[in-house]
Design a protein that fits this description.
two-stranded antiparallel sheet, about 0% strand, ABC transporter involved in vitamin B12 uptake, BtuC, mainly alpha, about 70% helix, disordered C terminus
């Protein structure tokens, strides 16, 4: 069996194990708070997987992905609160379909925004790209706060309807758990298929060097924009689900700190690894919940964690731990162009 076939079988095994664990967890976890945390892990995983495709594979650092999360959340919130139950909707049209249609429309709109902003932004490199994406996040926050007639301003929006199918509403932590992790597993499957395809190899080549990739006939700009759009649509889906789950959304839910947290999750899980994204999202989400106890030192703690990981585990925490216990024989380089930093990929 070739290496590619081995990886496919290994990924299928890990997917089966993940689904088995996700099936058993609700039987063990009874607390509503613990289910809430599990749901947040699923939402964060969707964003981090897409962001890892952009950073870990294409080598394009984005510090503004909370914008796309916020776009999905606010588009869903604004439209559904104004359309659901509206008198002008046809009597025969099922009301429960509206939030689903809006969620899909929000993904399309967010993808369009990512495409329009990605064309000029992704021509930048290094620190300039980081500053551009940070600036996008700052502008988005200002718009959310100042456009209070539409977004509710700093107080945000409430009364967002739950998603439902007929009379079955996803209005509990357990019901939403099934929905969010179903979507998360789907994004994992799509991403694993992508990175093992020709597109994934092209993205790795771009990460290694755009000039060298161009000489091989790879349209580097087109690939960068496409993966940027895909990662933005992942974040939009997570944002829409988040809004319909908590039925409230505020500008603080998609601020710069959230963008930074997503990047830290990518780095901790391991750059260039899909399964590492799940690990990083789970670890940092659990840690963030714990750090609520010392909220004033939240940012300091996250910075310290990032610093320690970059010093002692530059390839990521998960592959670093496996390297220490001897399961990986060859060391990997942080941000390496053709690295296989995530041994579970």
């Amino acid at each position: 069996m070739g290496l590619k076939g081995f990886r496919k079988n290994r990924n299928a095994l890990h997917l089966f194990m993940l689904i088995a664990v996700l099936t058993v967890l609700p039987c063990v976890v009874k607390s509503g708070y613990h289910l809430l945390v599990l749901n947040l892990i699923g939402l964060n995983t969707m964003i981090v997987v897409g962001l890892n495709l952009l950073i870990g594979y294409a080598g394009q650092i984005s510090m503004g992905h909370a914008v796309f999360f916020g776009l999905g959340a606010y588009i869903s919130a604004i439209v559904t609160t104004n359309v659901t139950g509206a008198a002008w909707l046809p009597v025969w049209f099922p009301q429960w379909v509206v939030p689903w249609v809006v969620t899909f429309a929000a993904m399309v709109c967010t993808g369009a925004v990512a495409y329009l902003t990605g064309i000029p932004t992704l021509k930048l490199k290094g620190n300039y790209l980081v500053m551009a994406t940070l600036g996008l996040n700052i502008i988005f926050e200002i718009v959310l706060v100042e456009w209070d007639t539409m977004t509710g301003g700093a107080n945000g929006m409430t009364g967002i309807p739950h998603l439902s199918v007929g009379r079955f509403a996803f209005n509990s932590d357990l019901r939403f758990y099934c929905l969010v992790w179903g979507a998360t597993v789907l994004t994992l499957i799509v991403s694993l298929s992508l990175v093992s395809s020709r597109v994934g190899r092209a993205l790795k080549a771009i990460h290694g060097g755009e000039t060298a990739a161009s000489t091989l006939g790879i349209d580097t700009q087109a690939y960068k924009v496409k993966v940027f759009v895909l990662s933005a649509m992942y974040a939009s889906l997570a944002g829409s689900l988040y809004a319909h789950y908590l039925t409230v959304i505020t500008p603080k839910s998609c601020d710069i700190l959230y963008s930074i947290q997503m990047v830290i999750m990518v780095i901790v899980g391991g750059l260039g690894g899909v399964w590492g994204s799940l690990f990083g999202a789970a670890l940092l989400t659990l840690l963030s919940e714990f750090l609520h106890i010392v909220e004033k030192f939240n940012v300091v703690a996250l910075g310290l964690i990032l610093m320690l990981v970059m010093i002692f585990f530059p390839e990521g925490l998960l592959p670093g731990i496996r390297r220490l216990i001897g399961k990986t024989r060859e060391p990997t380089l942080a941000l390496g162009p053709f690295m296989d930093s995530d041994p579970l990929r």
